[in-house]
Specification:
It is built from 13 helices and 16 strands. The chain is an alpha/beta fold and about 375 residues long. It folds into two domains: about 200 residues, Probable inorganic polyphosphate/atp-NAD kinase, domain 1 (Rossmann fold); about 160 residues, Rossmann fold, CATH 3.40.50. Strands 10-9-8-11-13-15-16-14-12 form a nine-stranded mixed β-sheet, with helices on both faces. Strands 3-2-1-4-5 form a five-stranded parallel β-sheet, with helices on both faces.
Length: about 375
Amino acid sequence: MSICADHGRRLGLIVNPVAGLGGRVGLKGSDGAAIQQQALRLGAVPQSLHRAAQVLERLKPIKDELMLYTYPAEMGEEAAKRCGLDHTVIGSIVAGQTTAADTARAAREMQRLRVDLLLFAGGDGTARDITDAIDDTLLVLGIPTGVKMQSAVFAVSPISAGDLALASLQGRIRREREAEVMDIDEDALRQGIVTAKLYGYLRVPHEDRLVQGAKTPSSGRDKVAMETIALQIIDHMEDEPLYIVGPGTTTRAILSKLGLDKTLIGVDVVWKDKLLASDVNEAQLLNLLEGRTSRIIVTPIGGQGYLFGRGNQQISPKIIKQVGKANIIVVATPEKMDALRGRPFLVDTGDPETDRWLSGYTRVVCGYGEYSIYKISYAGEN
């Protein structure tokens, strides 16, 4: 264990080591030991440590003035060691068996230590645990590592979290706001029922381009636009390619017009106007794509603008590269586009090379015969 020198700015770090486990294996979350074990059996690879380390790397310019407090082993200590940062380990855990209670206990300890900023790597469930444990005197910022990511307490990417944390600790960003902590009932979610709920607020440092907004649902006014988009896509579908259809109400309208059932929050595969596979994970997609041409149909997340990396991690960098950038079809209603207020679409796949490759401009299907050209940025791009 390294011990921080008693000077400088105080930073707390909590890593939820199982956050996001369910993403690529199609489980739509990782809340609960049973789901976590199932995800690991399906070949899930933890991402939280790597993404937390990406943030700490951005803080190296102030490492000599930084007092870093973290929890043991996989809950933060390993990330600090990986980056070579001096740190103080507090609390105790049973390695390999961390729980929400550990997260809450760590958050309370960080508040007792009066850290200037608490970074946490996790998803909406982790944000809920921290909300329940602390009051609004503690400044908090989420490192996005979960699956659902409905809340507005997260930076748009680990790189953005690092940049924002650095600016905040240096006093270059003083703007703060109360950000919504939202979460979805995962049991209902796996049955295709999306029920988001406001659980509270956390005080976060704020910079528009670095912090994501809360997800906003589609409104009833979008219905006609969704139907015209569906007709446009169907009229131009080819016979041979597989169509990988991402989650969302806009993409669900396409399958509905074909007379097919769509998993609202899953990824489905269509071939020759038939449902070839439903609610697939990354491994299943790779098997289906072998030796075949394919297309990906995705819609940005309402209010946030993410095309990849939030809620559709099954469509992994490996899948995206195999399909090809030219074979990605983006669909979005005019109302959804307007809600972004000119902010670009975002990609945060977990692979910086893929994110940079996807950035640029894309054509968006907005209606029947109606298109828009829109910018894609990789999350964290300056």
